[in-house]
Design brief:
mainly alpha; two-stranded antiparallel sheet; 14 helices; about 400 residues
Amino acid sequence: MLYYFFQYLDSQFNVPGTGVFQFITFRAAAAFILSLLISAIYGKRIISFLRRQQVGETIRDLGLEGQQQKSGTPTMGGIIIILATLIPAILLAKLDNIYVILLLVTTLWMGFIGFLDDYIKVFKKNKEGLKGKFKVLGQIGLGLFVGSMLYFNDNITIKEKLPISQQVGDENGKRIVFGDAHKSTKTTLPFLKNNELDYAEAFRFLGDGFEKYGWIIFIFVTVFIVTGISNGANLTDGIDGLAAGTSAIIVVTLAVFAWVSGNIIFADYLDVMYIPNSGEMTVFILAFAGALIGFLWYNTYPAQVFMGDTGSLTIGGIIAVIAIAVRKELLLPVLAGIFVIENLSVILQVSWFKYTRKKFGEGRRIFKMSPLHHHYQKLNYHESKIVVRFWIVGILLAVFSIVTLKLR
């Protein structure tokens, strides 16, 4: 909204300073600061409101040290993250940008699913919350919507780099590096020199015209990633500050990818896929990052508020959609490695337990407890130490992910 207001002032009245709102970097920085202030300042009021409404977390006794002391801590704190993200994004981003629209829809969609789950747990006193099948249906629904929009919407295109022999100059002598904008099911394949993978190649056996079926694989991958990453974020939200801090690291890294992919100069220099108009996502992403960091003010040990599924499902959904939009979804096993490991630890634990119970008559465990962070708690590591070490691993994974821009 402010973008259009200052654009009007600049174009009609040439008011000094208003032109700075044309720059993505300025609006992204402003969005980060504003979201950080909103979550840090107004977060305390929201926590007080939740406490007055007796929106307290019910803690199951898992035999973990200090666990029961957290009982009654306000939950549904994801509302803080959502509000602190949406307000700066709506004020400072271009609201007619399809990528921003997708992220706004994702935030509200996953926020609503998470809110329903928390509401049932807190107010209906049903510890199970929203049934798993309804959560999954909601995640699949979002994946179908996002995948369809990313493929079928005419405003979502990519530009591929032309061979050197075809990079001629225009009438002004400026070198033309990228070809015409077109729709594509291509994505980035990390670590390889020719680092583009076309999902449509899965249908090459159909012969001529196989490209028109590429959207089937593209949408399937989108659904899989949205579901997997949102569940991974949900499982990571188990101890104070772990999910918010880990997510902030991932989100800042994705901001780098979004800005580079949407900037034709850096896309050329780094030899990455150029995605027109995707740079505008940087404003939303940094607003999201600021909200997460501001939330950490109250969520670090000992937590004054938990994000609940309202926050964790939203976080995972947003991260997944950003990665898919900038065609870096195949890098998520590295960048969101913490989420992936947390997910795998649960899958392995449950699968091994069922297998050994069937084969030996009693279930056996790989970890002392899953998800993985609870395993370390069982080993008597203090949760603050676990969280900081997970953050350090997350930073290393983020740095490695950024390095893949040139590591081929």
